[in-house]
Amino acid sequence: MRAILGSLLAGVAVTVAATGAITADGSNFTLTGDGVSYLFHVDPSSLDLVSDHYGGPATDFTPPANILAGGWSDGLTNTRREFPDVGRSDYRVPAIHIKHADGDTISAFAYKSYEITAGKPALSGLPATYGGDSDVSTLKVHMYDNYSDIEAVLSYSIFPKYNAIARSFQISNNGTANISIERAASFSIDLPNLDLNMIELQGDWAHEMNRVIRPVQYGETGFRSTEGYSSHIHSPFMALVSPTTTESSGEAWGFNLVYSGSFQANTERFSHGFIRVLLGLNPLQASVPVAPGQTFQAPEVVSVYSSEGLGDMSRSYHDLYRNHLSRSNYTLQTRPVLLNSWEGLGFDINQTSLDSLAKQTADLGIKLFVNDDGWFGKTPFARINDTAGLGDWTPNPDHFPGGLGPYVATVDSFTVANSSEKLQFGIWMEPEMVNPNSTLYTEHPDWVMYQGNHPRTLTRNQLVLNLGRTDVQDYIIQAVSNVLNSANIRYIKWDNNRGMHEMSTPAADYAYMLGLYRVVDNLTTTYPNVLFEGCASGGGRFNAGLLYYWPQHWTSDNTDAADRLTIQMGTTIMFPPSAMACHVSAIPNGITMRNISIEYRATVALMCGSFGFELKPVDLSAEERAAIPGILANWELINPIVISGSFYRLALPDDTNWPAAQLVSQDETTAVVFAFQQQATVKPAPPPLRMAGLNVTAMYRSTAFNGTYSGATLMNAGLNLAWPVEDYQSKLIYLYKQ
């Protein structure tokens, strides 16, 4: 990395010119992407950092808004700040709040120096975006509080190709007494007085990632997770958009926290109209201690700007995360079609029944068999139901007398139908949890998250192991390694079926996340050829922090295809479809009791990077069994496009009875349209289905029409599809560029 250094000395600006995406001109800093500019400067009197512009391309620093002075709101309250602290006339919510040893919470950070480097340094102990010197440039701004001997280093990294800016900061305690970080918003900016709406993704178990839109009004608008994890309830993401912004036009600012723990997202419109945007740790679960000589590292927030609508913002996130966040060997590879044992067998398993199910899996042409819950634990803590066994990761000798090795070897011996490939084996684990009815808890009751004499409250009959402890981390690493070393295991579904209740201190959540990242970093580095899939009662931890380590996540425990369509559309606001795991399940659906055709169920699931089945093959109807070869043939064609192509939300299920989505291959020669009818209608007629992302002048042939149409025709006039008068209908439409 080549570094350019600069400072302000005695109020005199030192001009340093940097080639590339970041320039420093005296006290002015400019970050420039293909379609974005981010400008801020150092105030010469206060040495505070002042926001000037974040949005479309801009080359000049213009005078600030003229705010009438008077009343109590003066000074810093009327300034658009980059790193607001508490006190000193700013009445708004701060980005940084530090409690000092004497009890005071005032900070006074002043600019000291900067450095510009090509590339992007890693964050110690935390996941973060990455890139080479030609992909990303980084500006570090050093600030110092002379009253408390605390240094803040603000990091700004810009990925010009994606109009993306990643921000984080460090706090170093250079004093002689302990401090604690009470609030840490990794990304903070004060936008001007704009008419904006906030979009967030809200939900719950089996109901994740629902789009909620509300105006940014005076006062605070926001949400947070206190579950210890990112949670089903809220995702650590928000977008600010103009009221007229659509999928294809208008301004959109996205903010996504690369972190898996509790968080808070907040906007505050003050009396002058300026909008403060904050995203970072949840202050209720912060209070992170920093001893003298130690440094606190805030997690990263990735912000993407688009002047061309939410869809363009989403595709920037998708491409950035696939190429510069998710580091798995599988991120840019097609994933094997799988069948999970849970729907077929539940806890009622033994080696004979599993061998039979695996053989049925191979006979259907499916490539990966996944053994779900129930395979581990010894009497009296055998995992024959969900009340015992978690934490004891050894095969149940009553079910597997020879261990996993002989059983997996049998599974590996089955030939996948219509191919020369052998069936692969995967397994379910929940390493961060423990049942009180287990050998592990009996021997180490102090290894769980708890607080003093307070009751240890159970969810799903289990407790959370305290991954803030190094001995717990080491135990999990060894336990998972023992399982992986015992047999030819190609895939792990890593589950997590409850939130955190009792914590010893508010800071225990941050310590837990650092421990979790150490564990999964060790395992994914040691076993790079194992495909890891995250799960947390569905999408409870579908977040960018774990996407760094694992290329895919189970999107929801709700596999009802009609509900899943809404969940998947919401998830793609910031996550690429390649990161979603989606399956065809049995009907009637176990949650909604809805009966939907296998064609519709498959069309919804084929939108995702990891495609599979949650059903018992012997229970398939003749019609369903006959449909599976065609479904697998479509998967062969579509999955490579899902992995690396561009995704377009053509119409949302919340807005229309005829939702649709589209993928365009990376080489732009093929497009796949997923079209749906939710409810049967006699009238009105369906609207034309207008495509997106096509070459305007190119001609396209299709499975949906005779002859060829131009890209302009398909995008502007669209196609009038014929739908039967039946509920839950779907169509897969292939477009081939001529």
From TrEMBL:
- A Pfam family per the record: Glyco_hydro_36N
Span of the signal peptide: 1-17
Q: Which InterPro entries does this UniProt record tie to the protein?
A: Aldolase_TIM, Alpga-gal_N_sf, Alpha-glycosidase_related, GH, Glyco_hydro_36, Glyco_hydro_36_C, Glyco_hydro_36_N, Glyco_hydro_b
Per UniProt, the keywords (alphabetical) are: Glycosidase, Hydrolase, Signal
> Main EC class of this protein?
hydrolase
EC number, as in UniProt: 3.2.1.22
List residues of the Glycosyl hydrolase family 36 N-terminal domain: 73-289
**Residues bound to substrate:** W205, D372, D373, R460, K493, W494, D495, N496, N497, C535, D557
GO BP:
carbohydrate catabolic process
Q: Where is the Glycosyl hydrolase family 36 C-terminal domain?
A: 658-735
Q: Where is the active site?
A: D495 (nucleophile), D557 (proton donor)
Q: Which Gene3D superfamilies match?
A: Aldolase class I, alpha-galactosidase from lactobacil brevis, Golgi alpha-mannosidase II
Reactions that this protein is recorded to catalyse: Hydrolysis of terminal, non-reducing alpha-D-galactose residues in alpha-D-galactosides, including galactose oligosaccharides, galactomannans and galactolipids
CDD domains given for it? GH36 (cd14791)
Tell me yes or no: is Transcription among this UniProt entry's keywords. Answer: no
Would you say which domain of life the source belongs to?
Answer: Eukaryota
Task performed by this protein: Hydrolyzes a variety of simple alpha-D-galactoside as well as more complex molecules such as oligosaccharides and polysaccharides.
Q: Which family does it belong to?
A: Belongs to the glycosyl hydrolase.
List the protein's name.
Answer: Alpha-galactosidase
Which lineage do the record's taxonomy fields give for this organism? Eukaryota, Fungi, Dikarya, Ascomycota, Pezizomycotina
